[in-house]
Amino acid sequence: MTQFGFYFDQSRCTGCYACVIACRDWHDIQDTTIELRKVIPLEQGKYPDIHLSYVSLSCCHCEKPACLAACPVKAISKRDSDGIVVVDHETCLGKDRCKQFCQQACPYNAPQFGSAENAKMQLCTLCADRLAEDKNPVCVAACPMRALDVGPMDALKEKHGDIREAPGFTCSKTTGPSIIFKPRY
Amino acid sequence: MTDPSEKTVVTSCPHDCGGRCLLKAHVKDGVITKIETDDGDDVQLRACARGRAYRQRVYSPDRLKYPMKRVGARGEGKFERISWDEALETVSAELVRVKETHAPESILYIAYSGNTGTFLHNQLSGFRFLTMFGGFTPIWGSASFWGNLFSTEITFGTVTAGHTGDDIPNAKYIIMWGWNPAETVQKTNTSFYLSQAKEKGVKIISIDPRFTDSAAAFADQWIPIRPGTDTAMIMAMAYTMITENLLDRKFLDKHTVGFDKFEAYVLGKEDGRPKTPDWAESITGVKKALIQDLARQYATVKPAKILTLGAPGRTAFGEQFHRALSTLSAMTGNIGIHGGDPAAFGLPPVGLQPAAGTGLIARQMTGNLPEGARQRPALHITKLWDAILKGKAGGYPADIKMAYITNGNPVNQFMNSNKAAQALKKLETIVVHEQFMTPTARYADILLPVNTQLERNDIIRPWQGESYCIYLNRVIDSLYESKSDLDIFTALAEKLGLSGYSDFSEDEWLRDFWEAARDLTDTKPLPDYDTFKKEGIFRAKRTRPVIAFEKQIHDPEKNPFPTPSGKIEIYSEKLKERNTPDLPPIPMYIEAWEGKNDPAAKKYPLQLITTHSKRRIHSNMDNNPWLNSLEPHVVWIHPQDAKTRGLENNDEVLVYNDRGKISIKTRVTERIMPGVVSIGQGAWYRPDKNGVDRGGCANVLLKDRHSPAGAFCSNTCLVEIEKM
Q1: Residues of A in contact with B638 (CB under 8 A)
Q2: Is the separation of the CB atoms in B42 and B490 below 8 Å?
């Protein structure tokens, strides 16, 4: 099975949020409590020796998704063709009828519900609609720093190496997130 | 899946950063469904979060939908819908009344940069209208970089003194001096070019009171400095370079005038006070050894760039910073070479130039009136409120009775917002063109709804100069009853019987602009207008970065600098003759008022700097939910300063001085120098009944005073903070 994933060049990221807004626009997410992609700042050190880095993060389309295992109605699955984790809205119970086990299980808080009544779970689709047309996910195409890349994990490893951790991101050994980094130390 | 019934339209964003990015709007059944950015050939003009959030601006429920008249008190925000006909009747009658019962100059036209860089639908439409109507009082100055513009003009004789962004990776050493393009954008792709330089191994230094996103992403070293003291540090760098003989005397002899006088000042031969690194350490808070190190590195690694735009010059004597910085660049011979930089206004000699002096654009600017009839004394942007309150009796050129405000939010964005509120209450009439109920719009008597750039055709270019321009194709029809400024003034001209204001269609105007324009990279021929409109972008062909003053340095005999001496003026005879206090002919360090030694510092011990937020463009987008949710509006304060005041992170505090009080939350962070606090300018002014601004507008706190040359001193301010 081919596993698609992300590459994130943290050394380039300026924390500008263009990826976040592009994602909200493309997927028409007006509810600002839904964060399919987020940018998380990390500040360390004491004045004047400061370290600041950002992690731009969405669902990592893990090899063994904890959300999938946690869902009581098996609404979450992984596509055979590309390993993208998807949720079936017909089956998902919604946030009021379920204890949002998927969100609790995810080490990255990727499953999102938002504020609407009994909202169904949403997560990054890796812009499967765009991939099908040979276009990069909208976050990758948006990044003014060209810090994001996407593709089959094998190809990404060949192009960018295989570093799996960076300041602000711990690689979960149990779920196997599909993301490679160039860290900023 | 892309819907085949959708079309995409190329457009851009007209707000006031120096960049211009490509936006591609998807439209279906007359509604914008998505916005993408440049996906063409490299180097793509990728938009920032603010451009990407445009759908929430255009389709905001808060858009002003129809003309309104005020029914409550000024500032209260109570309005009633009226017809366009009634609105235009009222505005034209008021214009005539004020002109006839007072004087034409009693009409103050405040048009600023809320919508900027466009050829047609811009501030000039009102300028032309009011000129043809019989005159008005205009404004002058720049809240962004007047110190830099002034200094660049004096030193080099022109403000075209920058390099294109793709020259950044050619440097071997870069100092970002009070410069944070990661948040301010500067030019489209500036940050991308900085990352390329960093990845090549170029050493990059950030000098700034804050550890900015740019410092984090690009800099090898952060040097925090006390606000308003940068010029002292430059003097000490010059001292080190002079005393250690680390300067390019040949370059100075050949291309500059007055270095001897500057050298005498730096060595203390005039005032008995050598500008040593020790001297500078006590002023700037930067260690002597750091200053010496920086001077040695900048002087010996060539080519080197010092990059800045406005911030250190937005201080009490801001022009001195820029004059001194360009002198450093001349001392190292970093002018006129690739990878160097004149450390001046960053506009390179590229791009599309509207052919002023010919064609319709000249008519648009002058209103066809002879020069004598057009000239009226202008008011500086920091003095508008004082001038309204005091008038001729206070020494101002006019008694202002009416304000006509377009393309801006001056209550919020010019200094001393409480004084603005007081002044605007005194006027007989206020007309505002706006898209939203901004703090300024709340003071209007007649409020006219303006469309966005997505609802009209125009041409736009980056004002920081790059070799492309974008056709703003109309994406959708104007929403509600909104119109462009030009359309409003055209309708007013008809009401007033002003013939010849605009006897052209939008398309005729733009076609004429395009045909009269020329491209500085000499791309010939320019594509014809229809091709340009269809493609949406024109990129001039060039093979290498374009830099300023290459000819002047290569062959000075044939290519003098456009200064009176024909050389780079470290000493300016023009300034000597001007004989203005605190505007000396050579760059000097002059201690700022409201600095740490000001007696007021006993009461207000914290230095406030006002910065640019990455989720706004000045005050634009403060009401955009997508952007608003990204980061809270906060005051940055160092843990040490927070502790002595008993403050913790996310506390609601009052930031105050004699000019006003704002309420805001704290961000306690190691990223700011002790003794300094910072607030992102642009949050909307919302005074409560007790006069506390609940919106956290930084300009409430700023003194309405400009530097001797006219710089907007928004980084010279003392405040105190306490828990609410």
Answers
A1: 47
A2: no
Q: Give CA–CA dist B155/B150, Å, rounded.
A: 9
Q: Please provide the average confidence, as pLDDT, over all residues in chain A.
A: 97
- ipTM metric: 0.97
Cα separations in angstroms, B423 against B74, B414, B542: 11, 13, 51
Beta carbon pairs, A and B, within 8 Å: 119
Are A16 and B614 inside 8 Å of each other by CB? yes
How high is the pLDDT of residue B2? 62
A50–B211 C-beta distance less than 8 A: yes
- How far apart are the CA of A140 and the nearest CA of chain B, in angstroms? 11
All domains in chain B, ordered by first residue: 68-142+352-454+475-524 (3.40.50.740), 146-349+549-578 (3.40.228.10), 599-702 (2.40.40.20)
CB contacts of B625 in chain A (<8 Å) are 30, 32
Tell me which chain A residue has its CA closest to the CA of residue B625. A32
Mean pLDDT over B291-313 rounds to 98
Among A14, A43, A115, A136, most B C-beta atoms within 10 A, so best to mutate, is A14
Q: Is the pLDDT of residue A156 over 70?
A: yes
Determine, for residues A17 and B34 on separate chains, whether the beta-carbon distance falls below 8 Å.
no
Nearest to B15 by CA among B42, B62, B53: B53
Q: What is the pLDDT of residue B361?
A: 52
Mean pLDDT of all residues in B608-628: 97
Is this prediction's pTM over 0.95? yes
Look at B670 and A30 and tell me if their CB atoms are within 8 Å: no
* pLDDT tens sequence across B511-526: 988 888 877 777 777 8
**Res. B371: pLDDT tops 60:** no
Distance from C-alpha of B552 to C-alpha of B560, rounded to nearest angstrom: 6
Q: In this complex, do B638 and A47 lie within 8 Å of one another by their Cβ atoms? A: yes
Among residues B187, B94, B144, B122, the alpha carbon closest in space to that of B462 is found at B187
Return the number of other C-beta atoms located less than 10 Å from residue B386's C-beta. Answer: 19
Instruction: Domains for chain A: give ranges and CATH numbers.
Output: 4-182 (3.30.70.20)
Instruction: For residue B672, give both structure tokens.
Output: 């700011």
Residue pLDDT, tens place only, B468-512? 999 999 999 999 999 999 999 999 999 999 988 887 899 998 998
Cβ B216–A53 below 8 Å, yes or no?
Answer: yes
Can you give the pLDDT at residue B128? 85
